[in-house]
Write a structure and sequence with these properties.
Blueprint: H1 3-35, H2 38-63, H3 79-108, H4 118-143, H5 147-150, H6 153-182, H7 186-215, H8 221-232, E1 237-249, E2 252-261, H9 267-284, E3 290-295
Parallel strand pairs: 2-3
Antiparallel strand pairs: 1-2
Helix pairs in contact: 1-2, 1-4, 1-6, 2-3, 2-6, 2-7, 3-7, 4-6, 6-7
Length: about 300
Amino acid sequence: MNREESDGKTRVTVLVALAANLVIAAAKAVGGLVTGSPALLSEAAHSVADSMNEVFLLASLKRSHRPADERHPFGYGKERYFWALLAAVGIFVMGGCFSFFQGFEALNSKEQESASGYEIGLIVLAVALLAEGSSLVRALLQVRGSDEEVRDPALRTVIAEDSTAVLGVLFAMAGMVLHLITGDIVWEACASFAIGLLLVYIAYRLGAEARGQLIGEAVDPELRGRLRSLLDAQPEIDNVDELLTMKLGLDSTLVAARIDLVPGLDSEAVELVCVRIKKSVSHSWPEADHVFLDITEAPSGD
């Protein structure tokens, strides 16, 4: 599957998640305001944050495909990680912080809130659970058996959001049910705190992954080892002094190698050897679209 087809599927998955979250956010907000449930209001904030993040992810899919230009000679592949980082910030601020706020508000309320109308809230959450679960299943089906899809930060973010959404709904339902049984709102406060902690953890994980890619991360050690073996196997290379790699996007990698060539090659032969080695690397790993070879010693031939 090429990148365009893969991104087309990811775009549909993100749009499905966005549509589900918009409807669910509205239902949760209305249900929360009617019932006064802090757990349900926390889940409404969670869905609003997810909806905003899906917009960020759609922007990343479009902007990361812009061709390289003079100011960005290596292209715009890292746009995906930038927007994924914004999505992580959105989860933390809009979802996690609001959930903590709702929990503290519930604990500090001077009088026990009524649990009247909670049946409606539970119905809303049950519908949300089905919608979030359906979106999660679609995302998981897309990544099944595909390492390339798993590396996509947009798809990983959707899976993380939908997974936390399912858990968040279960926390909210548990808090509301315990409130109904015991008459104590502290259970809903605990549910809000649990939702907040879950969102903060997911935001941290997504943010850390995006940060690593934006700073500049090498390819995995196994791929690096195979790349070094390929270079070592070239008859014209006497020694590989240094091998540096950096991911520039999902299907773009920079490879820079400092090599010693065998003695006796003239300048024309050196040029032909470098061109052949670069083609060999790019043929073996198509994502290695920027290959640079640094000859550390001048050839001894004429």
